[in-house]
C-alpha cells in the first residue's frame, strides 16, 4: 500500500511531519556533534577525520555511537566552556561578588529590598 496513491490524508500529513521532525533532529545532532568534535583538543586530526567519516557514512548510527561513547565528555566540555565564558565576561565587565554584595547592603539599608530578598540575592551571588 503506497501513501501517495491515497492522496492528501491525515496519515500522509502525519508521516510527512514525522519525516521532517526526524530530519531536523538529525541535522541538529550533527551540528552539535561536529561542534563538539572540532573543539576537542584531546583527539588527533586522524581521529576527527574518522569520526567525520563515520558520521557521514552511517548517519544515525554514527550519531548514536558518538553520543554513547562521548556523551559524558560532551557534557563536561560544554560545562567547562560555559564556565570559561562566564569567567571571561566577569573579567571584562568587572563583575565582582564583593561589589555586588556591597550594592545589596546599600539597597537593604535604604529600604529598597527586604531582609528576605537580601538573603535570597546574597545566597545566589555567593553560590
Provide the descriptors you would attach to this structure in a database record.
127 residues, mainly alpha, 5 helices, 82% helix, 0% strand, transmembrane helix, membrane, CLS_N, Cardiolipin synthase N-terminal domain-containing protein
Brief summary:
With 127 residues, the protein is mostly helical. It is built from five helices and no strands.
Tell me what you see in this structure.
This is Cardiolipin synthase N-terminal domain-containing protein. It is found in: Cell membrane. Keywords: Cell membrane, Membrane, Transmembrane, Transmembrane helix. With 127 residues, the chain is mainly α. It has a domain at 43-126. Helix content is 82%, strand content 0%. The model has no long low-confidence stretch (mean pLDDT 88).
What is the global morphology?
Answer: elongated
Mean pLDDT: 88
Structural category: mainly alpha
Count of discrete alpha- or pi-helical segments spanning 4 or more residues: 5
- Gyration radius (Cα, Å) is 25 Å
Q: Which regions contain 5 or more consecutive residues with pLDDT less than 50?
A: none
Write the layout of secondary structure elements.
Elements: H1 10-39, H2 45-58, H3 60-93, H4 97-110, H5 115-126
